[in-house]
Write a structure and sequence with these properties.
Elements: E1 19-22, E2 25-28, E3 49-52, E4 60-63, H1 73-89, E5 91-93, E6 97-101, E7 104-109, E8 113-115, E9 118-124, E10 127-135, E11 141-147, H2 154-163, E12 166-171, H3 181-191, E13 194-198, H4 200-236, H5 247-255, H6 275-291, H7 301-307, H8 328-331, H9 338-351, E14 355-358, E15 361-364, H10 366-407, H11 418-423, H12 433-439, H13 442-458, H14 473-517, H15 521-526, H16 536-542, H17 544-585, H18 588-596, H19 607-610, H20 614-621
Parallel strand pairs: 11-12
Antiparallel strand pairs: 1-2, 3-4, 5-8, 6-7, 9-10, 10-11, 12-13, 14-15
Helix pairs in contact: 5-6, 7-9, 10-12, 10-13, 14-16, 14-17, 16-17, 17-18, 17-20
């Protein structure tokens, strides 16, 4: 059997106890006799131990009697092993010393190596205190706590602080299952995480940092207070504006009977427009959100302030230098931020029933929304009617001005007065032009249509006999003469165009006929297209439709000629075969007599004329008979 690996230097991290006390001196399981001859006691509970040293299990101490452990083997092993390892090397690396206080931190010294003269375990009140105490040549002491399964609790740290000895904790929990004793030793000395549990320097420097932080806080508070005072003075000196677009909002609310809610001449802290304007803007824009269908069930001061950003003082400094208006309230006594002013305005709206409070939320009154909607619709309708009236008035005025300008005559002379004409319109006797403009009814539309017809006539367009009582008779007669001349010119032009068109159609059909029929073209052109119909040349002359009909008849005639020629070629083929057969049966004179002599068998047709297809060819050839009969 091969020997197992020697773990004697590492057994401090096994659950089994690897160290005992003999005559008050720490001894390792490897240095004692087997069994009770070891003469050792448990360093944790003081009970008698026996040494188990075999070839299978790891060498370890067990409690005499039941053999069960007292339950502190792992921690006790760790501390005893740590004392042994530290005693063998006589140095350990300390973590950086960083003091904290008042939110500040300062490094007192970087991590460094601590060299010492001896390492020993301490025992207090009859129990082993799980730590190792190191003593340097100059008398400085350092407690090393080894964390395997449990970190030092607040009570133990308090006892360490009370003792006044600096202490660190080394976390070896990641190495508790490691089999390499040298690696665990290096972890204890340098690699494993370690923290300060107590160092007098930490308290001393921490107190200084806390004092420094407190001084900084006081200085910052004083600086902020002075900055706030200056900023408030700047806000209160900001020029007051009165934007024109806000005035109609207030006028609407006053018209609806809410003028008492939108009063106040002074802007207030944080506002740059008078109170009556920013209040009107907040309420009007809130109602506008509701009319647009956006939710207004959670009305808050912040929401209303967001609607009137153009009414608030704006901080033009960089973002990190800006101060909250609400923060200035604590810096400057008497400063009232916009949020408080808006909350007071919301209280007024709630007392008037314009804001309804339910389940922690404010919502806009539906009655107010409906009242504003109805008022705006009525005003829009009135404005639209007035705009339409103004357009009608401008249209008729512009139309009359154009008419008199086109007629090149004044609106007022001895024969005509436009002022009198407008007082009694010929379109609707008894109604003035102003009445027609206001009504915009059928009489108005008839007047406008009549003026447009007169304008078209004066511009050289169609005649109109209805002058609506306006003095344009001379222009009407001139227009009639001009229209008659234009009609005559148009008639002559139309007749010339028709003559040219007839000639062109005749040329077109003649060229088409010659191209298709050559020498037979003139005969075809002069022939009727159908029984009782005109010939092709006359039919084409009459209209474009006639030309189309003639061209169609020409195409059909050409197709018939082509089909007849094709059939003639086929018939000639059958007749040639019959001639060949007759020539083979008779001498030439007799063959010619046979071909051209009428036969009863063929319906009194000659064999040559009868032969037009395969069937008739067979019938004609059957008359040749046999050679004996011939």
């Amino acid at each position: 059997m091969s020997r197992r690996k020697d773990h004697s230097e590492f057994l401090g991290f096994r659950k089994e106890l690897a160290y005992g006390l003999r005559d008050g001196v720490q001894v390792s399981i490897r240095d004692v006799e087997r069994g009770a001859a070891c003469r050792c006691i448990c360093p944790a509970c003081g009970g008698e131990l026996v040494a188990h040293k075999g070839d299978i299990l790891v060498h370890h101490f067990a409690h005499a009697g039941s053999g069960e452990s007292c339950g502190t083997g792992l921690e006790t092993n760790a501390h005893l092993w740590a004392k042994q390892a530290l005693g063998a090397h006589l140095w350990i690396r300390l973590p950086p010393l960083v003091a904290q206080g008042g939110g500040l931190a300062r490094q007192v010294h970087r991590g460094q190596d601590f060299t010492f003269l001896k390492a020993e375990l301490e025992k207090r009140a009859g129990e082993i205190v799980p730590d190792v105490e190191l003593t340097a040549r100059d008398g400085r002491r350092l407690i090393v706590e080894v964390l395997v399964t449990h970190a030092c609790g607040p009570e133990k740290i308090a006892r360490i602080r009370a003792g006044g000895v600096s202490a660190i904790e080394v976390d070896l929990s990641a190495w508790k299952d490691c089999d390499d004793a040298e690696e665990v030793a290096q972890a204890l000395l340098t690699k494993a995480p370690r923290v300060w549990l107590f160092n007098p320097k930490l308290d001393e420097v921490g107190a200084l940092l806390a004092s420094e932080a407190e001084a900084r806080v006081r200085a910052e508070a004083a600086r902020q207070k002075e900055a706030g005072r200056r900023l408030v003075a700047r806000i209160r000196k900001a020029p007051v504006r009165r934007p024109r677009e806000l005035e109609p909002m207030r006028a609407e609310l006053v018209r609806l009977g809410y003028g008492r809610l939108v009063g106040g001449a002074r802007p207030g802290d944080g506002f740059v427009v008078p109170a009556h304007l920013w209040k009107a803007a907040a309420l009007s824009r809130l109602v506008a959100r509701a009319l647009d269908g956006r939710p207004v069930d959670q009305v808050t001061p912040e929401m209303l302030l967001g609607l009137i950003r153009d009414c608030l003082w704006s901080d033009d400094r960089p973002p990190r230098q800006r101060a909250s208006l609400d923060a200035l309230r604590s810096a400057v006594p008497g400063f009232r931020p916009p949020s408080e002013a808006m909350q007071a305005f919301m209280d007024d709206l709630q007392s008037e029933g314009l804001l309804l409070y339910r389940k922690g939320d404010h919502r806009l009154s539906p009655a107010l929304i409906e009242r504003v909607r109805s008022d705006r619709e009525a005003r829009r309708a009135a404005a639209a009617a007035e705009a339409a009236r103004l357009r009608r008035e401008m249209d008729v005025q512009a139309g009359l001005e154009r008419l008199f300008a086109l007629a090149e005559r004044p609106t007022e002379d001895d024969a005509f007065s436009l002022a009198a004409w407008t007082r009694n319109s010929p379109v609707a006797p008894g109604r003035s032009l102003a009445d027609l403009v206001m009504a915009g009814d059928a009489d108005w539309r008839a007047l406008l249509s009549g003026l447009s017809a007169i304008e078209r006539m004066l511009e050289g367009g169609a005649l109109t006999d209805e002058l609506l009582g306006l003095p344009f008779e001379e222009r009407l007669e001139e227009a009639r003469r001009q229209a008659a001349w234009i009609v005559a010119q148009e008639r002559a032009a139309q007749e010339e165009a028709e003559r040219r068109a007839r000639a062109g159609r005749m040329v077109a059909i003649r060229e088409a006929a010659w191209a298709a029929l050559n020498g037979e073209a003139e005969y075809w052109l002069s022939s009727p297209l159908a029984p009782g119909a005109a010939c092709a040349i006359r039919t084409s002359e009459q209209s474009d439709e006639g030309l189309g009909a003639a061209l169609g008849a020409l195409r059909r005639h050409v197709a018939e000629l082509e089909e007849a020629a094709r059939k003639a070629v086929v018939i000639e083929g059958f007749q040639a075969r019959l001639r060949q057969a007759a020539g083979a049966s008779f001498e030439p004179a007799r063959a010619e007599f046979f071909l051209n002599n009428r036969r009863p068998e063929l319906g009194m047709a000659t064999p040559l004329a009868y032969c037009v297809d395969e069937r008739s060819l067979r019938e004609a050839m059957s008359l040749l008979g046999s050679r004996s009969k011939r």
